[in-house]
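Table S2 (continued). Query chain:
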Amino acid sequence: MTRRRALVLLWTLPAAILVATSALTYHAFRIAPPDRLDGPARAAAIAPLRAVLDGSGAPAPATASDAPIVLVATIWSHGRAVARVDGRGDDLAAAASYAASALAADHAVRGMAPAERADARVQLDVVAGRAPLGGDSPLLDNLALPGIADMLAIQSGVDGVGTTIAGRDVLMLPHELVAQKLVSSKQPSNAMPELAMGLDLPKLEQLLAQRAGVPRGQVPGLFRFRTDAFVEPPRASRAADTTPIPLTRGIPPRPELSAAALRAAALAGGRYLVGHLAPNGRFVYEVDLATGRQSDPKLLGGNYSLPRHAGTTYFLSELYRITGEAWLREPIERALAHMISLVDQFPCHGAPPDDFDCVLDKGERQAQLGSTALGVVALAEYQRATGDTRYAERARRLAAFLLYMQRPDGSFRHLYDPATHAPDDDAQLLYYTGESTLALARMYTVTHDERYAAAAQRGLDWSVDWYEFFLGGFFYGEEHWTCITAEALWPYAQADRYREFCDGYGAFLRDQQTAVGDLPDADDLAGAYDVTAFVPPYNTPAGSRTEAMVSAYKLDLDHGAPDPAILGQIRAALGYALGQQLRPDGDFDSVGDVDGGMPGSPVDRTVRIDYVQHVCSAMIRASEILGD
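Corresponding output:
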């Protein structure tokens, strides 16, 4: 009981302090959002710059201007910023003309081929209000939190930072701060490493000094500013509509939520994953959108995650089962074959009389339960989708490992040493118990062997019973696999307490989900989880938690008691996720073929395979319950 209470405090107290402090800082340092230009005004501002790129305009040479910067133009080509010019003037038209003249003289632009110029996209940031960066707040000082304003007083992806040198403003735009990884760079709590906020001020000052052409020590005080940002549509779309697209945190407006939109987005995610699957069956694990750098799928071991490989293959099988798209099948089989080859290449077996296989990657000395568990989920889902039993015996041997690792009370050991044939009875790793119960439930689905169903139910009971303590009904860990398993075991296990547990979990998550108006000036984050004004949400929870809520809603339907609050929760989270997915209208600043990918957050320009897996799995499963 003491350990559980300590966990409650560890997971909830820092978040409560952060939310309260963020609210105080927000009111102390808020910059009012700019008035957004309408479509014709955006088009008029970009027109002289597009004329330069098309060679149809001959702007007058730029003349010196003491007027403040009112806009910055960025020219994007193949995901890279090839040119950046300031526009100065007393009004928007004068500033756009000034920027066009500077663009015409830019060496990088003059060296572009006509086709490159036509494909390039112009982004404008019209500079709006400004305020000091950081500083002290008497209210925060009275709370014994001096200096925390320096960490919180920037809204990542929304605020830019600048300085004034020799009477001229030198600016780092919001998207430049993101691309340089200068935002969300501090971790105030070692207990919550995923909690990142604030600025890398030393690196920022260095970059501002380089841009101004002065020594680093000559950068004076910094200020924050906001912009009204917009970008041209892709070339293929301009024939129909040239109206520039408004951007918030560098992201276009969300698509309208519908079952059809979710299905299309899930398939786009599938195409991204298939496009990033190597001939050897291993995925390009991670891609940096700003640079195009990506992990090498030919290298075994390293930072590659076998649980995420298996989970991604599971999603592709699930997508194939629901959509029947033929192009998915061969890549699924290639990814499964790679996983099976690892079992043969790096032996992991049980000593007699135990007869099982487990999964290892190169360099691993201990088998992680999650690698084998999600491998079983992927193999079972493939058989469920295709009726093909070619992997049935391998799935049986891997599932035998899960049965071996389960204790009589339903819990699991999470690590196994194949050299000594000994499980680790102490280590407990996040997600592995839930993944294993789902694997056993899916094995029951495809084999009808009640050994698997009974073991899955024991694991489910252990997970649910863990919360039978004082605060258990008010606090939950990450239990999305638990609720997916509860629905997967229906109708074998029909205990109403599983439905009640998942409904309670849904209510707990809704308290962490933002709605429109909850965060002034940040309605673009509505529907996401774990948000403050200064810490943008991670995108994966919008997927993984929604996977759980789809199962919770279906479990309610099975019991004849659908919960409209859960349905609304699903719609809100997937509305947010649709906006985050990379699409042709918003991929202008991403290097490579990345459409369908899912970045880590609105300010984390990295795509990892599990980000795509969780969000797109939620999308395709929700498309079956959301009517248009």
